[in-house]
């Protein structure tokens, strides 16, 4: 940090909670904080994996997204048409009328 002249500009090192990052903060003699967004993301990911229902929903969603990524735009529009008319969905589908 001295090489780049930023020692006085850095007040805190924000990282994930990995031991190597904590050690880095100590080595640099900086105040260290764990990123709350990263910690929250880990909690949510772990929570979603623990619930069988959520795991099943994630698996189905992953398959659905994979399917749509593999087809052309024309096929997607066709599928939307089928979905709208099969379920008689009312709404602002000006594109389809």
Automatic annotation (TrEMBL):
Transmembrane spans: 68-87
Keyword Transmembrane annotated: yes
InterPro entries: RNaseH-like_sf
Keywords of the record: Membrane, Transmembrane, Transmembrane helix
UniProt name for this protein: DUF659 domain-containing protein
């Amino acid at each position: 940090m001295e090489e780049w002249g930023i020692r006085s500009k850095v007040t805190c090192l924000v990282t994930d909670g990995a031991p190597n990052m904590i050690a880095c903060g100590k080595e640099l003699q900086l105040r260290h904080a764990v990123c709350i967004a990263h910690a929250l993301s880990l909690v949510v990911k772990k929570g979603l994996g623990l619930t069988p229902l959520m795991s099943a929903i994630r698996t189905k969603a992953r398959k659905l997204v994979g399917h749509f990524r593999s087809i052309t735009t024309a096929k997607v529009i066709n599928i939307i048409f089928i979905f709208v008319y099969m379920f008689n969905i009312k709404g602002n589908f000006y594109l389809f009328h």
